[in-house]
UniProtKB/TrEMBL annotation:
It comes from the Eukaryota. GO terms for biological process: carboxylic acid metabolic process. One of its GO terms (cellular component) is cytoplasm. One of its GO terms (molecular function) is oxidoreductase activity. This is Thiomorpholine-carboxylate dehydrogenase. It holds the Pfam family OCD_Mu_crystall. SUPFAM superfamilies: NAD(P)-binding Rossmann-fold domains (SSF51735). Belongs to the ornithine cyclodeaminase/mu-crystallin family. The lineage of its organism: Eukaryota, Viridiplantae, Chlorophyta, Pyramimonadophyceae, Pyramimonadales.
Length: 356
């Protein structure tokens, strides 16, 4: 039962942050810690959230999605402790993200994900802040992959890993940064349908980490050869990664597929791998990477071994040996948006010396 709460003055008026300010207020390393807590909340019942509501738009070009969530007072306190923000009163929170997803927007210079994240006090319904949804989504998605990589990749690979990035959108940049927070990348291999965009990422990475070995590839098979960590970050409707190309012991973060019509992984690769997810309820219904093999009978629901939160809690086993291929399939969870928004909110208030 929640502790009895009494009204308290709002530290700052409701505020809005665009993408740049969200980036400035929330270091990716802190977002990773917060997202680790969010993944725990999914599995320990501190959070409540339905499967996202998705409305396909008549044009066929995109969808409108709503992602509400709730976090208990105990959960909020735990979140703040996990990132070193403690000592102030906490209340239960609720949050919703309203977002449009238009996969073809990149061709006209627009973000594929656009919308807002709204954070409320669940005690009295006060709106605390409105944040750019694209940046919140980008941060917490890469952060979830970083948590899973640290948990499921071979431990000897974390001190010098060969990382393959498949895709050249925003998530490519965010995943490289997030993985650098949890592992030492020895070499970076980049593949994308646009060679120009792949070279742009390579140029950026070389400038940011002068000692990093970076290469671009025209073929996925070459990019992932002997890679320790593979991140699939594309809106592909057909598999781009085949099992035969993936070395024993590799860890895969499969991010791009979030609807039944999108699929990045060859079904045989899914059958071969030890599969972990961010949220089981969504992953058996939404991503083509899992829905396809489930519907065909190639795998059954028990093939999804655990939510990452269950492994973090010690309730389920992650990697069992050095030769297993581990797969983290993420579709994104509303509680990750809430936790990210709460950290942005409190950092905003701390910056102004106004956090209660």
């Amino acid at each position: 039962m929640e502790a009895k709460l009494t009204p308290r003055p709002l530290a700052v008026p409701m505020f809005m942050c665009g993408a740049e300010e969200v980036r400035e207020l929330l270091p990716l390393s802190q977002c990773i810690d917060g997202t680790r807590s969010a993944l725990l909340f999914i599995s320990n019942a501190e959070a409540a959230m339905p499967v996202r509501q998705v409305v396909p738009l008549p044009s066929g070009a995109g969808v409108l999605a709503g992602m509400p969530s709730y976090l208990s007072q105990k959960g909020v306190s735990s979140l703040l402790e996990s990132v070193g923000i403690a000592g102030q009163a906490s209340t239960p929170l609720c949050c919703t993200k309203c977002i449009t997803v238009f996969p073809g927007n990149g061709s006209v210079g627009l973000d594929s994900h656009q919308g807002s994240v709204l954070l409320f006090e669940a005690f009295n319904g006060r709106l605390l802040c409105i944040l750019d949804a694209h940046e919140v989504t980008a941060l917490r998605t890469a952060a979830a992959s970083a948590v899973a990589t640290k948990l499921l990749a071979r431990q000897n690979a974390l001190n010098g890993s060969d990382v393959a990035i498949l895709g050249t959108g925003v998530q490519a940049y965010k995943h490289i940064e997030a993985l650098q927070c949890v592992t030492k990348i020895a070499s970076l291999r980049i593949w994308g349908r646009s060679e120009h965009k792949a070279e742009q990422i390579a140029h950026w990475a070389r400038g940011k980490w002068s000692d990093l070995e970076v290469h671009t590839y025209r073929a996925v098979a070459d990019a992932v050869k002997n890679a320790d960590v593979i991140c699939t970050l594309t809106p592909s409707s057909e598999p781009i990664l085949e099992s035969a190309w993936v070395a024993a012991g590799a860890h895969i973060n499969a991010v791009g597929s979030c609807t039944p019509s999108h699929q990045e992984l060859e079904p045989e690769l899914v059958r071969r791998a030890r599969v972990f997810v961010d949220t089981r309820a969504a992953c058996i219904k939404e991503p083509g990477d899992l829905v396809g093999p489930l519907n065909s009978g190639l795998i059954h629901e028990g093939h999804i071994l655990a939510e990452v939160g269950e492994v973090l809690m010690g309730k389920r086993v992650g990697r069992e040996d050095e030769d297993q291929v581990t797969l983290f399939k993420s579709v994104g969870a509303a509680i990750e948006d809430l936790c990210t928004a709460k950290l942005v909110h409190d950092n905003y208030c701390l910056k102004r010396g106004q956090l209660l």
